[in-house]
Write a structure and sequence with these properties.
alpha/beta, Collagenase (Catalytic Domain), six-stranded mixed β-sheet, two-stranded antiparallel ribbon, about 20% strand, disordered N terminus, binds zinc ion
Length: about 290
């Protein structure tokens, strides 16, 4: 049994064990989408396992804040810009073999919410944001009820077959979630994802997002709806959960600084379509 582990990636030719923490540690440095080359001497009786993650979304800030350029530069270096002009720009968080890593849009996505520390009416905001992203991506989301689990990195699955709801969205703070701990006061929300897949003997990699956790900073006194609202923040973070990265176009909701818009913009919507049902199902061999 041969097991190799790189900084960013677990390649395990013999078992279905995956280690998400290695990828998350890398993503904490602002590097997303990193995939190590195949282990040349791996003894393989089947596809090698690959895994990774994205986030945290440290750069999503209030208007007027300066973007943390070191993080956005690192992320931008690996992002694929689907379009570069004005209102149609979008990026993907992670690209494998030329395709964005995304959920299988042909499988319902179950989600749960922790609204115990959020604003009154917060759950309705989350439900509306999920419905919006579901409609724009052609994905089906199944709400399974509230939870008291904190939205932190520990919620993310460590293997592709996790049985609990793979998406958790909730309000918390730096003391309650490692996603917000130590972040600047200007940070509104953070998203991390985990993806799992395989690398076939011919080197082809295919993976699917299997988990996402969204931590909204409850200490930010935002209104529920309208510009600069929890609704806008939730839509932005759900864009990350679906596989989108930040864009330089400040008019898009996927900009790193919250723009004064109430909904996902043309570029955001174009990107969501690319990671959605219209791009076909995602089938990971052996998963
Ligand atoms: Zn963001």
């Amino acid at each position: 049994m041969t097991e190799r582990q790189s900084m960013s990636l677990t390649v395990n030719a013999a078992r279905r064990t995956v280690v998400a923490t290695a990828a998350l540690a890398l993503s904490a440095l602002g590097v997303v989408g990193a995939v190590a080359p195949a282990v040349a001497d791996a003894v393989s009786s089947g596809p090698a396992q690959v895994s990774g993650g994205t986030g945290p979304d440290a750069a999503f800030k209030r208007i007027g804040e300066v973007t943390r350029t070191s993080r956005t530069a690192a992320a931008g270096a690996l992002a694929v810009r689907g379009a570069t002009t004005g209102s149609t720009s979008y990026t993907f968080s992670t690209v494998l073999d030329g395709s964005p890593v995304r959920w299988d849009p042909c499988t319902p996505i179950r989600w749960t919410a922790n609204v115990s520390r959020g604003p009154a009416g917060g759950l309705d905001v989350l439900k509306a944001a999920v419905a919006r992203v579901g409609a724009l991506t052609g994905t089906t989301w199944q709400y399974v009820g509230t939870t008291t689990t904190q939205p932190d990195a520990g919620y993310l699955p460590t293997r592709a077959q996790a049985q609990y709801p793979p998406v958790l969205i909730g309000w918390t703070d730096g003391a309650g979630s490692d996603l917000l701990a130590g972040q600047a006061r200007s940070v509104l929300g953070m998203t991390r994802t985990a993806w799992f897949g395989v690398q076939t003997p011919d080197g082809k990699k295919i993976a699917a997002t299997r988990g996402a956790v969204i931590a909204l900073d409850r200490t930010d006194p935002l209104p529920l709806k309208g510009a600069n609202s929890w609704s806008a923040v939730a839509l932005h973070e759900l864009g990350h959960a679906m596989g989108l990265g930040h864009v330089g176009d400040r008019t898009q909701l996927m900009a790193s600084i919250l723009p004064a818009v109430t909904d996902l913009q043309a570029g955001d919507r174009a990107g969501l379509a690319k990671v959605g049902r219209s791009s076909g199902c995602v089938t990971v061999p052996g998963a």
